[in-house]
Amino acid sequence: MTPAYVALEGGHVIEGRGRAPGTARGELVFTTAYTGYEESLTDPSYEEQILTFSYPLIGNYGVREERFESDRVHPRAVLAKELTEDVTEWLASEGVPAVDHLDTREVVTDIRDGGAMKCGIAVGEDVTEDDALEQLEACKAMSDHTEIGAQVSVDEPVVHGADNDGDTVALIDCGAKGSIVDSLLARNATVHVLPHDASAHDVEAVSPDILFISNGPGDPANYEQAINLVDTFVEDTPVAGICLGQQIVAEALGGTTEKMTFGHRGVNQPVLDLESGQVVMTTQNHGYTVADPGDHLEVTQINVNDDTPEGIDGIEYDVITRQYHPEANPGPEDTLDFFDDVLAMAETRSQRAVPADD
Ligand SMILES: NC(=O)CC[C@H](N)C(=O)O
Protein backbone atom coordinates (compact mmCIF):
# COMPACT_ATOMS: atom_id res chain seq x y z
CA MET A 1 0.00 0.00 0.00
CA THR A 2 1.39 3.42 -0.93
CA PRO A 3 1.74 5.64 2.17
CA ALA A 4 -0.32 8.83 2.31
CA TYR A 5 -0.39 11.52 5.02
CA VAL A 6 -2.89 14.32 5.44
CA ALA A 7 -1.79 17.07 7.88
CA LEU A 8 -4.64 19.20 9.19
CA GLU A 9 -4.33 22.75 10.50
CA GLY A 10 -3.21 22.39 14.11
CA GLY A 11 -0.84 19.55 13.23
CA HIS A 12 -3.05 16.43 13.48
CA VAL A 13 -1.95 13.95 10.78
CA ILE A 14 -4.29 11.34 9.29
CA GLU A 15 -3.04 8.32 7.34
CA GLY A 16 -4.71 6.94 4.25
CA ARG A 17 -3.99 4.88 1.17
CA GLY A 18 -2.01 6.67 -1.54
CA ARG A 19 -3.76 6.47 -4.95
CA ALA A 20 -2.03 9.21 -6.94
CA PRO A 21 1.44 10.39 -5.86
CA GLY A 22 2.75 13.84 -5.01
CA THR A 23 2.73 16.56 -2.41
CA ALA A 24 0.20 19.36 -2.19
CA ARG A 25 -1.24 22.04 0.05
CA GLY A 26 -4.49 23.95 0.03
CA GLU A 27 -7.65 24.87 1.86
CA LEU A 28 -9.40 21.68 2.97
CA VAL A 29 -13.11 21.65 2.07
CA PHE A 30 -15.80 19.02 1.52
CA THR A 31 -18.61 18.46 -0.96
CA THR A 32 -21.68 16.36 -0.31
CA ALA A 33 -22.29 15.82 -4.05
CA TYR A 34 -22.89 12.13 -4.76
CA THR A 35 -22.41 12.39 -8.52
CA GLY A 36 -20.68 14.85 -10.80
CA TYR A 37 -17.09 14.27 -9.71
CA GLU A 38 -15.74 15.06 -13.21
CA GLU A 39 -17.57 18.40 -13.25
CA SER A 40 -16.50 19.27 -9.70
CA LEU A 41 -12.87 18.32 -10.24
CA THR A 42 -12.66 20.52 -13.37
CA ASP A 43 -14.53 23.48 -11.81
CA PRO A 44 -11.96 26.32 -11.57
CA SER A 45 -13.64 27.52 -8.35
CA TYR A 46 -11.75 24.69 -6.54
CA GLU A 47 -8.30 26.16 -7.40
CA GLU A 48 -6.01 26.12 -4.31
CA GLN A 49 -8.38 23.81 -2.41
CA ILE A 50 -8.17 20.17 -1.33
CA LEU A 51 -11.47 18.50 -2.01
CA THR A 52 -12.92 15.83 0.28
CA PHE A 53 -15.86 13.87 -1.09
CA SER A 54 -18.27 12.90 1.70
CA TYR A 55 -20.02 10.43 -0.63
CA PRO A 56 -18.16 7.12 -0.10
CA LEU A 57 -17.55 5.94 -3.68
CA ILE A 58 -16.12 8.30 -6.30
CA GLY A 59 -15.35 7.32 -9.90
CA ASN A 60 -17.97 4.59 -10.35
CA TYR A 61 -19.11 5.68 -13.82
CA GLY A 62 -15.70 6.44 -15.35
CA VAL A 63 -14.15 9.63 -16.62
CA ARG A 64 -15.45 11.31 -19.78
CA GLU A 65 -14.02 14.51 -21.16
CA GLU A 66 -17.36 15.80 -22.43
CA ARG A 67 -18.36 16.27 -18.81
CA PHE A 68 -15.37 18.49 -17.99
CA GLU A 69 -16.01 22.12 -17.05
CA SER A 70 -12.49 23.29 -18.00
CA ASP A 71 -9.33 21.77 -19.45
CA ARG A 72 -7.71 20.63 -16.19
CA VAL A 73 -8.26 19.44 -12.63
CA HIS A 74 -8.32 22.38 -10.19
CA PRO A 75 -8.29 21.02 -6.63
CA ARG A 76 -4.68 20.59 -5.44
CA ALA A 77 -5.50 17.11 -4.03
CA VAL A 78 -8.48 14.79 -3.57
CA LEU A 79 -9.65 12.79 -0.54
CA ALA A 80 -12.38 10.13 -0.54
CA LYS A 81 -13.41 6.93 1.19
CA GLU A 82 -12.94 4.90 -2.01
CA LEU A 83 -11.64 6.09 -5.38
CA THR A 84 -11.91 3.89 -8.48
CA GLU A 85 -9.02 3.09 -10.82
CA ASP A 86 -10.49 5.34 -13.55
CA VAL A 87 -10.52 8.42 -11.39
CA THR A 88 -7.12 7.80 -9.74
CA GLU A 89 -5.47 7.22 -13.12
CA TRP A 90 -6.91 10.50 -14.33
CA LEU A 91 -5.74 12.37 -11.19
CA ALA A 92 -2.28 10.78 -11.44
CA SER A 93 -2.02 11.84 -15.10
CA GLU A 94 -2.84 15.40 -14.03
CA GLY A 95 -0.26 15.29 -11.20
CA VAL A 96 -2.94 15.69 -8.53
CA PRO A 97 -2.32 13.62 -5.38
CA ALA A 98 -5.23 11.42 -4.30
CA VAL A 99 -5.84 9.58 -1.03
CA ASP A 100 -8.57 7.10 -0.09
CA HIS A 101 -9.35 4.61 2.70
CA LEU A 102 -9.66 7.56 5.09
CA ASP A 103 -12.46 8.07 7.55
CA THR A 104 -14.01 10.91 5.54
CA ARG A 105 -16.77 11.26 8.16
CA GLU A 106 -14.07 12.30 10.61
CA VAL A 107 -12.52 14.73 8.10
CA VAL A 108 -15.93 16.28 7.36
CA THR A 109 -16.71 16.59 11.08
CA ASP A 110 -13.35 18.30 11.63
CA ILE A 111 -14.10 20.78 8.83
CA ARG A 112 -17.62 21.43 10.15
CA ASP A 113 -16.24 22.07 13.65
CA GLY A 114 -13.04 23.91 12.77
CA GLY A 115 -14.07 25.49 9.47
CA ALA A 116 -12.34 25.15 6.10
CA MET A 117 -8.69 24.80 7.12
CA LYS A 118 -5.13 24.72 5.84
CA CYS A 119 -3.95 21.24 4.86
CA GLY A 120 -0.76 19.56 3.66
CA ILE A 121 -0.61 16.23 1.81
CA ALA A 122 2.17 13.80 0.96
CA VAL A 123 1.61 10.62 -1.06
CA GLY A 124 4.28 8.21 -2.33
CA GLU A 125 6.50 5.24 -1.50
CA ASP A 126 9.12 7.34 0.30
CA VAL A 127 7.09 10.08 1.96
CA THR A 128 6.82 10.67 5.71
CA GLU A 129 4.47 12.54 8.03
CA ASP A 130 7.00 15.37 8.05
CA ASP A 131 6.55 15.89 4.30
CA ALA A 132 2.83 16.50 4.88
CA LEU A 133 3.58 18.81 7.83
CA GLU A 134 6.06 20.76 5.67
CA GLN A 135 3.32 21.29 3.09
CA LEU A 136 0.95 22.43 5.84
CA GLU A 137 3.57 24.90 7.06
CA ALA A 138 3.83 26.41 3.57
CA CYS A 139 0.06 26.60 3.06
CA LYS A 140 -1.34 30.12 2.60
CA ALA A 141 -4.76 31.30 3.75
CA MET A 142 -7.19 31.50 0.84
CA SER A 143 -7.48 35.30 1.06
CA ASP A 144 -3.68 35.57 0.64
CA HIS A 145 -3.89 34.11 -2.88
CA THR A 146 -4.11 37.60 -4.32
CA GLU A 147 -3.25 36.55 -7.91
CA ILE A 148 -5.65 33.61 -8.05
CA GLY A 149 -7.72 35.14 -10.87
CA ALA A 150 -4.70 35.00 -13.19
CA GLN A 151 -4.29 31.26 -12.49
CA VAL A 152 -7.71 30.39 -13.91
CA SER A 153 -8.66 33.11 -16.40
CA VAL A 154 -8.12 33.30 -20.17
CA ASP A 155 -5.10 35.50 -21.01
CA GLU A 156 -6.68 36.97 -24.13
CA PRO A 157 -10.30 37.57 -25.15
CA VAL A 158 -12.05 34.57 -26.76
CA VAL A 159 -15.32 34.83 -28.73
CA HIS A 160 -17.93 32.06 -28.78
CA GLY A 161 -21.01 32.11 -31.03
CA ALA A 162 -19.80 34.97 -33.22
CA ASP A 163 -22.51 34.11 -35.79
CA ASN A 164 -25.33 34.05 -33.24
CA ASP A 165 -27.81 36.88 -33.66
CA GLY A 166 -28.92 37.19 -30.03
CA ASP A 167 -27.51 39.40 -27.30
CA THR A 168 -23.84 40.17 -26.81
CA VAL A 169 -22.47 39.14 -23.44
CA ALA A 170 -19.11 40.25 -21.98
CA LEU A 171 -18.27 37.37 -19.63
CA ILE A 172 -15.51 38.38 -17.20
CA ASP A 173 -13.61 35.12 -16.75
CA CYS A 174 -12.61 34.79 -13.11
CA GLY A 175 -12.55 30.99 -13.62
CA ALA A 176 -15.76 30.45 -15.59
CA LYS A 177 -17.26 26.98 -15.89
CA GLY A 178 -17.82 25.86 -19.49
CA SER A 179 -21.50 25.33 -18.78
CA ILE A 180 -22.03 29.06 -18.24
CA VAL A 181 -20.79 29.76 -21.77
CA ASP A 182 -22.86 26.82 -23.10
CA SER A 183 -26.02 28.07 -21.36
CA LEU A 184 -25.62 31.50 -23.01
CA LEU A 185 -24.82 30.01 -26.44
CA ALA A 186 -27.93 27.80 -26.18
CA ARG A 187 -29.89 31.07 -25.95
CA ASN A 188 -28.31 32.41 -29.12
CA ALA A 189 -25.99 34.87 -27.39
CA THR A 190 -22.54 35.86 -28.61
CA VAL A 191 -20.19 35.44 -25.67
CA HIS A 192 -16.97 37.46 -25.40
CA VAL A 193 -14.91 35.79 -22.68
CA LEU A 194 -12.61 38.50 -21.29
CA PRO A 195 -9.68 38.14 -18.85
CA HIS A 196 -10.36 38.62 -15.12
CA ASP A 197 -8.48 41.93 -15.22
CA ALA A 198 -10.12 43.29 -18.39
CA SER A 199 -10.20 47.09 -18.50
CA ALA A 200 -13.28 49.26 -19.10
CA HIS A 201 -11.87 49.86 -22.56
CA ASP A 202 -11.75 46.09 -23.26
CA VAL A 203 -15.40 45.79 -22.25
CA GLU A 204 -16.47 48.84 -24.29
CA ALA A 205 -14.72 47.31 -27.31
CA VAL A 206 -17.32 44.51 -27.46
CA SER A 207 -20.31 46.83 -26.65
CA PRO A 208 -22.07 44.23 -24.54
CA ASP A 209 -25.80 44.04 -23.87
CA ILE A 210 -24.92 42.29 -20.60
CA LEU A 211 -21.86 42.43 -18.34
CA PHE A 212 -21.61 38.97 -16.74
CA ILE A 213 -19.20 38.18 -13.88
CA SER A 214 -18.34 34.49 -13.67
CA ASN A 215 -17.81 32.09 -10.80
CA GLY A 216 -14.24 31.61 -9.62
CA PRO A 217 -11.89 30.66 -6.80
CA GLY A 218 -10.76 32.56 -3.74
CA ASP A 219 -11.70 35.75 -1.95
CA PRO A 220 -13.88 38.17 -3.98
CA ALA A 221 -11.89 41.08 -2.51
CA ASN A 222 -8.93 39.94 -4.66
CA TYR A 223 -10.77 40.74 -7.93
CA GLU A 224 -10.31 44.50 -7.80
CA GLN A 225 -10.52 45.04 -11.55
CA ALA A 226 -13.80 43.12 -11.92
CA ILE A 227 -15.23 45.06 -8.96
CA ASN A 228 -14.29 48.31 -10.74
CA LEU A 229 -15.93 47.14 -13.97
CA VAL A 230 -19.29 46.55 -12.26
CA ASP A 231 -19.08 49.98 -10.67
CA THR A 232 -18.22 51.58 -14.03
CA PHE A 233 -20.86 49.85 -16.18
CA VAL A 234 -23.86 49.27 -13.92
CA GLU A 235 -25.63 52.53 -14.77
CA ASP A 236 -25.68 51.80 -18.50
CA THR A 237 -25.35 48.03 -18.89
CA PRO A 238 -27.33 45.22 -17.18
CA VAL A 239 -25.10 43.17 -14.90
CA ALA A 240 -25.33 39.45 -14.02
CA GLY A 241 -23.19 37.29 -11.77
CA ILE A 242 -22.84 33.69 -10.62
CA CYS A 243 -21.28 32.69 -7.29
CA LEU A 244 -18.03 34.71 -7.09
CA GLY A 245 -19.88 37.01 -9.53
CA GLN A 246 -22.62 37.70 -6.98
CA GLN A 247 -19.96 38.50 -4.36
CA ILE A 248 -18.08 40.83 -6.74
CA VAL A 249 -21.30 42.66 -7.65
CA ALA A 250 -22.09 43.16 -3.95
CA GLU A 251 -18.57 44.47 -3.26
CA ALA A 252 -18.88 46.87 -6.20
CA LEU A 253 -22.25 48.32 -5.21
CA GLY A 254 -21.65 49.13 -1.56
CA GLY A 255 -22.27 45.69 -0.03
CA THR A 256 -19.85 43.49 1.89
CA THR A 257 -18.77 39.83 1.80
CA GLU A 258 -17.41 37.52 4.48
CA LYS A 259 -15.89 34.07 4.79
CA MET A 260 -18.25 31.31 5.92
CA THR A 261 -17.17 28.64 8.42
CA PHE A 262 -17.17 25.72 5.98
CA GLY A 263 -19.29 27.01 3.09
CA HIS A 264 -21.79 25.23 0.86
CA ARG A 265 -20.62 22.50 -1.51
CA GLY A 266 -23.01 19.95 -2.92
CA VAL A 267 -25.86 19.38 -5.34
CA ASN A 268 -28.89 19.52 -3.05
CA GLN A 269 -28.74 22.90 -1.33
CA PRO A 270 -32.32 24.19 -0.86
CA VAL A 271 -33.02 27.76 -1.94
CA LEU A 272 -36.21 29.72 -1.18
CA ASP A 273 -37.45 32.37 -3.59
CA LEU A 274 -38.85 35.04 -1.28
CA GLU A 275 -41.44 36.33 -3.76
CA SER A 276 -42.91 33.07 -5.07
CA GLY A 277 -42.37 30.99 -1.92
CA GLN A 278 -40.96 28.24 -4.15
CA VAL A 279 -37.98 26.12 -3.03
CA VAL A 280 -35.52 24.73 -5.58
CA MET A 281 -32.60 22.35 -5.15
CA THR A 282 -29.33 23.86 -6.29
CA THR A 283 -25.69 23.10 -6.95
CA GLN A 284 -23.28 25.06 -4.79
CA ASN A 285 -19.56 25.50 -4.27
CA HIS A 286 -18.60 28.53 -2.22
CA GLY A 287 -16.80 29.51 0.97
CA TYR A 288 -17.59 33.23 0.97
CA THR A 289 -20.99 34.89 1.09
CA VAL A 290 -22.58 38.32 0.79
CA ALA A 291 -22.83 39.63 4.37
CA ASP A 292 -24.66 42.87 3.59
CA PRO A 293 -26.06 43.68 0.14
CA GLY A 294 -25.82 47.45 0.73
CA ASP A 295 -28.33 50.10 -0.36
CA HIS A 296 -28.48 49.32 -4.09
CA LEU A 297 -29.23 45.58 -3.97
CA GLU A 298 -31.99 43.48 -2.46
CA VAL A 299 -31.91 39.82 -1.51
CA THR A 300 -34.59 37.87 -3.44
CA GLN A 301 -33.61 34.29 -2.57
CA ILE A 302 -32.12 32.73 0.58
CA ASN A 303 -30.62 29.41 1.60
CA VAL A 304 -33.17 27.39 3.57
CA ASN A 305 -30.49 25.95 5.89
CA ASP A 306 -28.81 29.15 7.03
CA ASP A 307 -30.70 32.12 5.46
CA THR A 308 -27.61 33.36 3.54
CA PRO A 309 -28.31 35.35 0.33
CA GLU A 310 -28.71 33.11 -2.73
CA GLY A 311 -30.25 35.56 -5.20
CA ILE A 312 -29.87 39.31 -5.46
CA ASP A 313 -31.56 41.97 -7.65
CA GLY A 314 -30.62 45.58 -8.25
CA ILE A 315 -33.00 48.12 -6.70
CA GLU A 316 -32.46 50.96 -9.18
CA TYR A 317 -30.10 49.10 -11.54
CA ASP A 318 -30.66 46.12 -13.88
CA VAL A 319 -28.77 43.50 -11.89
CA ILE A 320 -29.45 39.80 -11.18
CA THR A 321 -27.05 37.45 -9.47
CA ARG A 322 -27.05 33.97 -7.96
CA GLN A 323 -24.82 32.52 -5.24
CA TYR A 324 -25.57 28.97 -6.46
CA HIS A 325 -24.77 27.53 -9.90
CA PRO A 326 -27.86 27.87 -12.12
CA GLU A 327 -25.90 26.25 -14.97
CA ALA A 328 -25.91 22.94 -12.99
CA ASN A 329 -23.21 20.48 -14.14
CA PRO A 330 -23.18 18.78 -11.77
CA GLY A 331 -26.58 18.90 -10.16
CA PRO A 332 -30.19 19.78 -10.83
CA GLU A 333 -31.19 21.77 -13.90
CA ASP A 334 -34.20 23.43 -12.25
CA THR A 335 -32.59 26.86 -12.29
CA LEU A 336 -31.50 27.17 -15.93
CA ASP A 337 -34.17 29.85 -16.49
CA PHE A 338 -31.78 32.26 -14.73
CA PHE A 339 -30.11 32.66 -18.13
CA ASP A 340 -33.45 33.65 -19.72
CA ASP A 341 -33.93 36.23 -16.97
CA VAL A 342 -30.42 37.60 -17.53
CA LEU A 343 -30.91 38.00 -21.28
CA ALA A 344 -34.39 39.47 -20.72
CA MET A 345 -32.67 42.40 -18.96
CA ALA A 346 -31.14 43.37 -22.32
CA GLU A 347 -34.56 43.28 -24.05
CA THR A 348 -36.25 45.40 -21.39
CA ARG A 349 -33.39 47.85 -21.56
CA SER A 350 -33.54 48.20 -25.35
CA GLN A 351 -37.33 48.70 -25.28
CA ARG A 352 -36.95 51.47 -22.72
CA ALA A 353 -34.30 53.08 -24.90
CA VAL A 354 -36.68 53.39 -27.90
CA PRO A 355 -38.26 56.86 -27.78
CA ALA A 356 -42.07 56.98 -27.66
CA ASP A 357 -43.85 57.77 -30.99
CA ASP A 358 -45.47 60.90 -29.72
N1 LIG B 1 -18.00 28.85 -7.13
C1 LIG B 1 -17.55 30.06 -6.89
O1 LIG B 1 -17.62 30.97 -7.70
C2 LIG B 1 -16.87 30.28 -5.56
C3 LIG B 1 -16.83 31.72 -5.14
C4 LIG B 1 -15.80 32.02 -4.06
N2 LIG B 1 -14.49 31.65 -4.46
C5 LIG B 1 -16.19 31.33 -2.78
O2 LIG B 1 -15.55 30.40 -2.38
O3 LIG B 1 -17.16 31.72 -2.17
From TrEMBL:
It comes from Natronorubrum halalkaliphilum. CDD domains: GATase1_CPSase. PANTHER family: CARBAMOYL-PHOSPHATE SYNTHASE SMALL CHAIN, MULTIFUNCTIONAL TRYPTOPHAN BIOSYNTHESIS PROTEIN-RELATED. Small subunit of the glutamine-dependent carbamoyl phosphate synthetase (CPSase). CPSase catalyzes the formation of carbamoyl phosphate from the ammonia moiety of glutamine, carbonate, and phosphate donated by ATP, constituting the first step of 2 biosynthetic pathways, one leading to arginine and/or urea and the other to pyrimidine nucleotides. The small subunit (glutamine amidotransferase) binds and cleaves glutamine to supply the large subunit with the substrate ammonia. L-glutamine binds at S45, G216, G218, L244, Q247, N285, G287, Y288. It comes from the Archaea. Residues 2-122 form the Carbamoyl-phosphate synthase small subunit N-terminal domain. This is Carbamoyl phosphate synthase small chain.
